């Protein structure tokens, strides 16, 4: 009984701490601007990422209290989020007033005219807070503009998929000596794929020898869209295959038609990817982006490429993470020449992921939704938001003391994001993103499962991509 | 001169006719279309359908 | 005598084996639902001594799962009411009167129950959106008729066929109206069958996933679809997923427990022949 | 009499209307869509293409493979569940203490949502947190449904058996309880043993129930979706990508509405033909007895 009461107290405390008011610079302005929309209910949908959770649990209730606009904000799994929002957009049903626009899907939405142009809203001072300041956003906002520079969505999350490793293991003198003895060079953050492979092998064998659950590699290899994303976003770019292997001018993927998807380098990368799965935990073929982070958090992996939005809980949440204070982040290893390409702006080494809030063309409460989007993007809340969810979309946020303090805990991630963010890129402008992903998923997962060889998979994939492009009129 | 080996009403006949028609079309497309156009199958099965409905 | 004891031992052994096979996954679900995230990942201990109630607390009191639960209850119950009343009427007509082409009609309704639900998702999405039925409870109640109504008619047919015709003929002669006969004669006699039908209908509606996942978003979302939402970027929350699974299981189990006997009585499918 | 006739249609009307609205209208709609090239992301919009979607369908190796896989699944599941169910149902005709409790336990899986069952087995089979792979690994068996296609396939079969054998048991018990007593008494007089009674009296008498149950199980395993979706999502590779899963992926991921309508129509056609053949078979065998 005592235990139960204690538990209830803890639960109430947790609940209480979530509704403490964050700072609002000028509440009067918000109340005045929201006056005409009092009582309106706006609905939104997002993927249940840490930033979305923070918006639902912190931003939305405060917004409701201050303005009287009711927010029904649904956070759901990635697949569900897409299914629901695309179907809503496509049928013009007007169910949602704001939606999560992931960076890679924006081109599909723009091509169909599914989003509301926000530039007129920004220029309208009646519904845009005076210090909203579009120029303060990091370059990530450029992915949400059309050719004319109109903004269609306001970013609220942005993060890198980059290299993460266990600092404590890498700095252990015993391990360092063992590594040096075996491979003849010092154990350090790898800069080439060969080094990465060596380290992966080393830690997997080390785990076996010591009889502990430790592996040297992690991947999201489940038969799920994530496996296709991993290849296209992280592995291929770092091997020098950009834009999903598709030639964006000709919109074709096979080598014969000017693409690079079934080039030797792409095949080599896929073969490497498949081979490397043996150094990952045995469950790797059931992992999506969720499990990769969870497994790292459980301390089972020494290094890998994961979505770094997870750093927030990895570095802070004791109930879920066993690696607090042991995390290091760095740029991913690259094939020769890729880093130079990226520095010259011709290529990129990994994925600058993130999402934004946009307003569907069919929304009936666009102004109220716009107020909420601004609310989430308001300057004074950004550091707190970053603490809750490891994301930065405004330049000014980097300067905040809170962020500087967090940066140390997270192995210097925010510095990495600020200084090297330009080496990463979002997804290429492919409006037929979804059907393409399905094709990539099909063939890559066949290769991962060993049904076909990687070479065969990519030849078939390139052929099918070309066919699809033709069918869709590109 | 009944085609079907059991007693049937009008709905049964139309149903069976359409089922056969669809199957023939699919098989035709898969195996025969290289040699004969699909119209042949359409005309043939339509003729069969009418015959089936009339005779039972 | 000895053979008999031996047989009894054997029977018990088999029963215990089957029961263990049936119960172990459910037991494991409970166990996981009582664990913290770290416990879940720290190796599968079979025995659980502590109970981490936060797994239950968070989804149902802080998230929207409480509302999903209510939606599920309303949709399942509403659908059961609609299906059972329609099915009793229709089955009586099929059973007592010569409806022209009735066997064809019957066959056609059955095929709706048997078709893969995936077949209907494209048209339903577009049609429901046009009619404004998307994401409404009433839309889901109507939609679930597509597989529940044929099944109900099928189940009830055997029951009503087995009620002697003479009984309702006599009631007609006494001056009863059609509905009078239905209410006073058929309903009491077919009660076990109707009970079974209602329970199974309810369970099917409660358990449905695919349509609910596609056709609802906020207002009419059901608890089963909530399960899929746990698979998130920040890691599948196994503990909470198990907790919601457990809650999702409870009403169905209660129903089955109460009505187990009726179900066996009603599951005769006696009159598939038509 | 005419009054009666009107009443009959009055009784049927609501059902027929509802079933028309939710059963026929969608079919007409997919019939219409199946004649178009219709992808949401297409630059050219909806294009009339006639019979071409079906042309693509019959040569679509992925689809045909998923169909073959789905049918293998049907055969395996039904082939195991029915004999098993029959045995257990027979066991339960014996009188022993605790039968009621055992029967209640048996009925549990039936009441559970397929999606719950899927998630439950995920908890059990997940290579990281599940006890089954963990203890099998201690025995030296590498069990991983995310890697090994054969294991994944048989795991889905196992889950289906876990879920649906109770249903088979229930219908058989209902059937057994409705059997006449005289043949058994006669057999007892003739001195037949248990097996003979089972083989020559129970099975033939139970035949209609067996066939009906078989019919329901075939159709239900053919439409399996939720459990497999939660458990493997069709993977690894395409090892458990049954037709429903293939279709849902096509609709939801690629938004290929025209082609998926053609596929839907084909599946519906297959369902109807299978139903019709089985139903005809059942009624003709019932007439024979």
* Number of separate strands of chain A: 7
Q: What structural category do the secondary elements of chain C indicate? A: mainly alpha
- Mean pLDDT across residues of chain A: 86
So what's the CATH class of the largest domain in chain A? Alpha Beta
Write the element-wise H/E pattern of chain C from the N-terminal end onward: HHHHHHHHHHHHHH
Number of helices of chain C: 14
Summed up, what is this model?
With 274 residues, chain C is mainly alpha-helical. Helix content of chain C is 75%, strand content 0%. A two-stranded antiparallel ribbon of chain D has the order 1-2.
Please tell me about this protein's structure.
The complex is a heterotetramer of chains A (474), B (56), C (274) and D (289). Chain A has 474 residues and is of the alpha/beta class. Chain A has helices at 2-18, 27-34, 50-67, 78-91, 106-111, 119-123, 167-170, 173-183, 193-210, 225-239, 264-276, 289-297, 311-316, 338-343, 366-377, 382-389, 401-409, 413-420, 433-449, 454-471; strands at residues 41-47, 70-76, 98-102, 153-166, 303-307, 327-330, 351-358. Chain A is built from 20 helices and seven strands. Chain A has two domains: 24-157 and 355-412, Periplasmic binding protein-like II (D-Maltodextrin-Binding Protein, domain 2); 160-351, Periplasmic binding protein-like II (D-Maltodextrin-Binding Protein, domain 2, 3-Layer(aba) Sandwich), CATH 3.40.190. Chain B has one domain (10-55). The mean pLDDT of chain B is 84. The longest helix of chain C has 32 residues, at 2-33. Chain C has 274 residues and is mainly α. Chain C starts with a helix and ends in an 8-residue tail after the last helix. Chain C folds into two domains: 1-52, no CATH class; 57-266, MetI-like (MetI-like fold), CATH 1.10.3720.10. In chain C, 75% of the residues lie in helices and 0% in strands. Chain C has helices at residues 2-33, 37-41, 54-62, 65-96, 102-114, 121-131, 137-143, 145-161, 165-173, 178-189, 191-207, 210-215, 223-228, 238-266. With 289 residues, chain D is mainly α. Chain D has helices at residues 2-33, 52-58, 61-91, 99-111, 114-125, 131-138, 149-177, 182-190, 194-222, 226-231, 243-254, 257-288, and strands at residues 36-37, 47-48. Chains in contact: A-C, A-D, B-C, B-D, C-D. The B-C interface holds B 9, 11-12, 15 and C 101, 104.
List the helices and strands and how they pair.
The complex is a heterotetramer of chains A (474), B (56), C (274) and D (289).
Chain A: H1 2-18, H2 27-34, E1 41-47, H3 50-67, E2 70-76, H4 78-91, E3 98-102, H5 106-111, H6 119-123, E4 153-166, H7 167-170, H8 173-183, H9 193-210, H10 225-239, H11 264-276, H12 289-297, E5 303-307, H13 311-316, E6 327-330, H14 338-343, E7 351-358, H15 366-377, H16 382-389, H17 401-409, H18 413-420, H19 433-449, H20 454-471
Chain C: H1 2-33, H2 37-41, H3 54-62, H4 65-96, H5 102-114, H6 121-131, H7 137-143, H8 145-161, H9 165-173, H10 178-189, H11 191-207, H12 210-215, H13 223-228, H14 238-266
Chain D: H1 2-33, E1 36-37, E2 47-48, H2 52-58, H3 61-91, H4 99-111, H5 114-125, H6 131-138, H7 149-177, H8 182-190, H9 194-222, H10 226-231, H11 243-254, H12 257-288
Antiparallel strand pairs in D: 1-2
